[in-house]
Amino acid sequence: MIIREYTGERVSNSYEVAKVLSAILDMDDEVDRDKEHFWVIGLNTKNVIKFIDLVSLGTLTNALIHPREVFRLAVMKGVCNIIAGHNHPSGDPAPSREDMAITERLKSAGDILGISVLDHVIISEGGQFVSLKDKGLL
To answer: What is the pLDDT of residues 68-92, one digit of tens each?
Structure first.
């Protein structure tokens, strides 16, 4: 589900990405905020947001993610780069083994498609976030 299309907003660091994703999550109703959301931000060559897509709305503890759905809109819209993002309703933004595995899988799929995965940002309440790129894990 497309959350936003061409915003003209440029993201240049993980803090800005976390801020955008937190604002989107804050717009959700209270019940859905307690579920894992997985978003894809599609970017042009200058890292201007072309779209934000809610790829999966999961449960309290996980969301179902597959490269096919992650890259579907990115291919259709012809973006150059994507940033993956999701929330941890637990309040701890530390990446899990599953988060690391899906990030690696998305990176591999992106390499094949010619769409770079620039980062994977995990947000939680209180403005906390972890960037896998900043941590050297991407």
So the answer is: 999 999 999 999 999 999 999 999 9
Q: Say if 138 falls within a structural domain.
A: no
| E strands, 44-115, in order | 49-57, 81-87
Residue position matching structure tokens 């896998």: 132
Of residues 105 and 28, the one with the higher pLDDT is 105
The number of folded domains in the chain is 1
- Which domain range does residue 32 map to? 2-131
Give the C-alpha separation, 135 to 112, whole Å: 24
* C-alpha 91, offset from chain centre: 17
Q: Residue 48 belongs to a domain with what CATH number?
A: 3.40.140.10
**Which DSSP category does 82 fall into?**
E
Phi-psi region for residue 124, left (φ > 0), alpha (ψ -120 to 50) or beta?
beta
Establish if 137 belongs to a structural domain.
Answer: no
